[in-house]
Write a structure and sequence with these properties.
The protein is of the alpha+beta class. Helix content is 22%, strand content 8%. The protein starts with 13 loop residues before the first helix and ends in a 9-residue tail after the last strand. Strands 1-2 form a two-stranded antiparallel ribbon.
């Protein structure tokens, strides 16, 4: 079955974007540092792959 497994968004302000997706939309993430270059979120309907 074909399915979307990853969506990558470029943003101008990473800290603001992390606050939006984490604090407003409630997506879980393991990003804890300020201004990470890349941040991965667990979103509804997706499953986190083991790393």
């Amino acid at each position: 079955m074909n399915k979307i497994t990853c969506i990558c968004l470029g943003v101008r302000d990473m800290e603001r974007s992390v606050r939006f997706y984490r604090d407003k939309l409630g997506f879980r993430t393991d990003c804890v540092e300020d201004g990470p270059r890349v941040c991965i979120f667990d979103t509804p309907g997706t499953r986190q792959q083991s790393r």
